[in-house]
Design the sequence.
């Protein structure tokens, strides 16, 4: 390796040059390998790693509610290997798996790991090298058999009792109600929110990240910024609201020049100064408002980024085919639509953070074949198409993270199960992800009508050897580990995470990262 | 949107909006709540009094009302903001100057429970942008300008109508500074109008 070429540039101009290089090389069309090679050539190999860390990442947080079961997507090895002898069926403690043993297929990854898939999840085969699954995560603890809006994987340390430094997590959610959500306090920001914060720090002209609040009922997902200013995602509550937020044309800016926008923001800051004391708001409120005004300055006048979100016919055919409609009380948007919109927003560099919220209406007692097949098609097919589409843009997949949560708890493999026990699923996808199914669920006994189950968490190497509680958190992965794994994949610096006491001392799950 | 659809939206909006009032009496100041009894005051201009609007005393044995979180500003409900605009402008809510706001109503925090769209009262940067876009036609409307002909040089009348009080010196200075860089009276007028009607005293509780 020769002398880094950056040294041939006058030191006073190096910083601007490096920023320019980072911006040019950050374009999704630039392959990651080329980008790294160029950075290495310009800045030296050691420094290239640092430059890489300043490049954008793209994040899709997929929050699946009402205790989503991936049982027809990723079959735990212990179940796959004993499926021929298991009692299967839609009720009681029978296994809610509606394929025979010969229909379950084994797939090795290049990492030496393995998956067992069903016919409902074959569409994921091309991407298994970059899909990591673990289901022995910390359980959800909502008072109604686990239902909660927060999830310890998304906000480690969240608690019903407000501890020191903790704030309400629900205040940003429109129409929030306690039932099925619960009131949680925390100090740890949720993943999409913290990612949104860092990406906007890196690129202030980005549109704010969004969360598509398309769950069919009063159940919701809490997104929480903690003390991060201007980190909150834009809450989108309807399809029209999404289209309004990202119009296909911009005919008129709110304020015509950046200078006028700056004057306007400064004047409002001054005019509003007395409001807080008059109305009993505290200094936090003023700080947040002034941060919002500063951000609004960049919105009243901005270079519009246009994205055409409504689907044309070929797009509809691509994203929709084979994906069942939303099953719920008040259907708001299908998951294939959300996946397509997420792709358009990210690939057009409008924003870098998109959260999807979706549900399959809470099913208890019996879970028949249609339930399991619908959930499988609604999760596996949109995921495969998202990955396929992102991979088609050179360099983008290497910088993309998709985190999928069974957001309010998972299920035991038995038909009659609830989200406060059994599996608690987390799926991580991305170019930096080391694919594999980590941990295991095995039959531990026969009841005559079905089975009992034993759960094994992965150890530090990923091997399924740590006995875990079926209905308690003993032996399960701490939510802080999952959270830090997502942060590592998103390239959010470790030092920035030291501010969050509930994740300090916990390490990422390295076996999930390439 | 077709003309028919726009008309339907307008009529629907006006019908729905008419159920509420954002004014606390005959003064045009911001409402404290959704008091239906004040509906008749919609569209009436306030007077120029500088006294605070009358408020009913709270009986001592009545439980405390809902407490607004003190750590983040919360907007007035959308329909209250609209009623207040109607009072300030002296126009009914089906006036064309409000069309842009009605079209943006859900982005600006309005609700439609039938579609599981809940009120969203965050005063976020996105909402600030949408609000300014929405009130530009109000500021540009001849009826508004006829009511506030001197706004470019003297914002005190609009402030009194919008805030139900007189402006203090700092506010007057702010609404004067917002005209910096404007080359003509029309530009100054619009900036003062946008600033007063976007200020927290008008949009938040």
Sequence:
């Amino acid at each position: 390796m020769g002398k880094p070429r950056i040294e041939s540039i006058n030191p006073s101009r190096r910083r601007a040059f490096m920023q320019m290089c980072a911006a040019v090389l950050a374009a999704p069309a630039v392959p990651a390998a080329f980008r790294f090679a160029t950075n290495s050539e310009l800045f030296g190999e050691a420094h290239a790693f640092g430059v890489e860390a300043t490049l954008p990442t793209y994040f899709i947080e997929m929050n699946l509610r009402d205790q989503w079961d991936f049982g027809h997507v990723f079959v735990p090895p212990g179940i796959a290997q004993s499926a021929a002898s298991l009692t299967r069926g839609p009720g009681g403690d029978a296994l809610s798996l509606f394929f025979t043993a010969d229909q379950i297929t084994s797939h090795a990854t290049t990492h030496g790991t393995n998956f067992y898939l069903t016919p409902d999840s074959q569409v994921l085969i091309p991407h298994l090298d970059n899909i990591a699954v673990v289901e022995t995560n910390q359980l959800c603890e909502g008072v109604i058999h686990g239902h909660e809006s927060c999830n310890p994987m998304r906000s480690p340390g969240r608690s019903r009792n407000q501890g020191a430094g903790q704030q309400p997590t629900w205040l940003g959610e429109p129409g929030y109600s306690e039932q099925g959500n619960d009131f949680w306090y925390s100090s740890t920001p949720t993943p999409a929110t913290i990612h949104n914060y860092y990406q906007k720090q890196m690129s202030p002209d980005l549109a704010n990240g969004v969360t598509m609040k398309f769950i069919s009922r009063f159940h919701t997902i809490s997104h929480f910024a903690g003390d991060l200013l201007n980190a909150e995602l834009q809450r989108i509550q309807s399809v029209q609201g999404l289209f309004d937020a990202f119009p296909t044309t911009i005919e008129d800016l709110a304020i015509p020049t950046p200078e006028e926008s700056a004057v306007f923001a400064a004047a409002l800051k001054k005019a509003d100064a007395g409001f807080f004391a008059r109305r009993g708001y505290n200094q936090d409120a003023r700080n947040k408002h002034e941060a919002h005004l500063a951000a609004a300055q960049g919105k009243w006048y901005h270079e519009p980024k246009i994205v055409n979100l409504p689907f044309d016919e070929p797009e509809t055919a691509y994203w929709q085919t084979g994906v069942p409609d939303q099953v719920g009380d008040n259907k708001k948007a299908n998951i294939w639509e959300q996946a397509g919109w997420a792709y358009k927003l990210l690939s057009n560099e409008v924003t870098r953070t998109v959260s999807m919220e979706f549900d399959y209406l809470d099913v208890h007692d019996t879970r028949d074949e249609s339930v399991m097949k619908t959930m499988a098609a609604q999760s596996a097919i949109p995921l495969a198409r998202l990955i396929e589409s992102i991979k088609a843009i050179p360099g983008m997949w290497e910088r993309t993270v998709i985190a999928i949560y069974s957001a309010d708890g998972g299920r035991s493999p038995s038909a009659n199960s609830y989200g406060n026990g059994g599996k608690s699923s987390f799926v991580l996808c991305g170019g930096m992800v080391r694919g594999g199914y980590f941990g295991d669920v095995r039959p531990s006994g026969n009841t005559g009508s079905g089975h009992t189950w034993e759960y094994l968490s992965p150890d530090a190497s990923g091997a399924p050897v740590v006995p875990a509680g079926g209905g308690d958190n003993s032996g399960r992965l701490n939510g802080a580990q999952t959270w830090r794994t997502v942060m590592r994949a998103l390239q959010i610096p470790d030092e920035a995470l030291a501010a969050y006491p509930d994740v300090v001392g916990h390490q990422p799950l390295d076996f999930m990262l390439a | 949107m077709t003309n028919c659809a726009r008309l339907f939206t307008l009529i629907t909006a006006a019908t729905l909006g008419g159920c509420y009032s954002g004014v606390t009496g005959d003064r045009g100041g911001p409402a404290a709540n959704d008091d239906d009894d004040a509906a008749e005051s919609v569209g009436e201009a306030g007077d120029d009094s500088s006294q605070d609007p009358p408020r009913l005393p709270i009986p001592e044995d009545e439980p405390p009302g809902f407490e607004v979180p003190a750590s983040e500003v919360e907007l007035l409900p959308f329909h209250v903001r609209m009623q207040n605009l109607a009072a300030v402008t002296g126009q009914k809510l089906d006036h064309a100057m409000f069309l842009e706001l009605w079209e943006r109503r859900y982005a600006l925090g309005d609700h439609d429970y039938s579609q599981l769209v809940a009120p969203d009262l965050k005063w976020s940067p996105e909402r600030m942008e949408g609000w300014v876009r929405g009130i530009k036609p109000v500021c540009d409307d001849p009826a508004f300008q006829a009511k506030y002909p001197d706004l470019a040089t003297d914002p005190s009348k609009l402030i009194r109508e919008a805030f139900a009080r007189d402006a203090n010196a700092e506010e007057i200075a702010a609404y004067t500074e917002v005209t910096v860089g404007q080359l003509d009276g029309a530009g100054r007028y619009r900036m003062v109008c946008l600033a007063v009607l976007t200020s927290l005293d008008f949009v938040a509780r």
Remarks:
- The CA atoms of residues 292 and 433 of chain A lie 35 Å apart.
- Chain A has three domains: 5-53, 58-128+141-249+304-418+433-512, 258-300.
- Residues 5-53 of chain A form one domain.
